[in-house]
Amino acid sequence: MDERQRLDKWLWFARVVKTRSLAARLVAEGYVRLNARRIETPAKSVGPGDVLTIALERQVRILKILAPGTRRGGFSEAKLLFEELTTGAAQRE
């Protein structure tokens, strides 16, 4: 299996957003950084080791990609795709 994947597809598989079109819009509107660089192309290829900074409506999340997704599964499956690097993520409820 290829270790790289489209950014919008990965965001959807990792359950960062509810739909793939929402993931594409988030990227196109400049709310996602890949390895500290602003990305505006939803088709940008990402893979293990890449770090995403995502500005969501109520929070900024920093995620290190661990694996490409194969499908949009449940939360327990999705959390295996990334490591949460967001400071204070554990304290937020």
UniProtKB/TrEMBL annotation:
Protein keywords: RNA-binding
RNA-binding S4 domain residues: 5-68
Recorded superkingdom: Bacteria
One Pfam family named in its UniProt record: S4
Keyword RNA-binding: yes
Residue ranges of the TM segments: none
SUPFAM superfamilies, A to Z: Alpha-L RNA-binding motif (SSF55174)
Protein name in the entry: RNA-binding S4 domain-containing protein
Organism field: Methylocapsa polymorpha
